[in-house]
Amino acid sequence: MATGMNRQIEPERRRYSRILTEAIDDEGRYDATKLAKLLDWTQQEIAQYLDKDPSSISRFSSSLIYQQPLSELAAIFSHLLSLMGDDLRITRAWLRTPIRVLDGKSPKEKILNHDLKTVNSLLDEVESGFSV
Predict the structure, then answer these.
(1) What are residue 24's phi and psi, to 5 degrees?
(2) CA 71 to each of CA 75, 102, 103: distance values in angstroms, whole numbers, following the listed order
């Protein structure tokens, strides 16, 4: 029998996974083009993140070689989305916003420059109550 808390958590889990499933193909792989669309990134930006030519992304958007970096990006996105109360617009805007503790750079800039660790640390601080 599910407790009240379990019933509350389950709809939230389904809601977050529903949004992220938009970036997964029929084989269960992250699709770079779909994830870029979800993040409101261009094909060029997702290609930069993957260190690939945009034409390669177009042809092989869910290639096995992209799965590790795409899963890391999806994890950041999922964490941020949960912190933003499942608000996709606010999540996208936050990624583009320059932040003082990131030396005036946006989280998106940090991610595109492969500094996911800094963005993850910032999300952890936000989650623990530190303001940014």
Answers:
(1) -115, 135
(2) 6, 23, 26
Q: DSSP label at 3?
A: -
Token pair for residue 110? 């940090």
Dihedral sign for Cα atoms in the order 7, 22, 68, 127? negative
Residue 24, CA atoms < 13 Å, CB-side half-sphere: 11
- How far, in Å, CA of 116 to CA of 52, rounded? 18
- What are the residues whose beta carbons fall under 8 Å from the beta carbon of 48, sequence distance 6 or more? 112
The pTM score is 0.83
**Tokens in use for 10?**
């389950």
Confidence band, pLDDT 50/70/90 cuts, at residue 128: confident
Q: What is the DSSP letter of 99?
A: B
| 1 half-sphere exposure, CB direction, 13 A CA radius | 2
Residue boundaries of the structural domains of the chain: 4-128
Contact 49, 111 (CB under 8 A): yes
pLDDT (tens digit per residue) in 8-35: 545 545 555 678 889 999 999 999 999 9
